[in-house]
Amino acid sequence: MQSKDIRHHEGSIFEHSLEVSFRSYKIAKKLKMDYRAIARGALLHDFFLYDWRTKGNRNLKYLKESHAVSHPRVALENARKYFDVSDMEADIIKKHMFPTTIVPPKYKESWIVTMVDKYYAVKEYQEGFFRKHSLQLRFYQLQQTLSFLTV
């Protein structure tokens, strides 16, 4: 399964990771931080490669934990399998779900990705919520208009 095929609220994991990486990179560059590590860590922060909403797709090793708690560890395992990951990049990946991961991020770059990820997760969820409810509202208004015309 590819990250482009896995949903993340309203887009794909791939789109979400690109957005979080790009925004984190811009912040890090402006603040003269390690923008390379932040971009790489953010790209890999959701590299878990399964659809957590589908029963049976979860990593068996972490099945008893919620996806919010386990997916950073799965993402880090996958990242290390395919890439050389620095300590900072590992911290970014493993702790981006703080406070659900309990241990706080060690680096300023990790904190940035954590906050940017939360911002975009809320934004994506909100966009989907309003899109869904906007369509329902339009349908309701159409029903009201049609019932008015038939009276």
Automatic annotation (TrEMBL):
Transmembrane segments: none
Pfam families for the chain: HD
HD domain segment(s): 14-119
InterPro entries documented for this protein: HD/PDEase_dom, HD_domain, HDIG_dom
Top-level lineage group: Bacteria
Protein name (record): HD domain-containing protein
Species per Swiss-Prot/TrEMBL record: Isachenkonia alkalipeptolytica
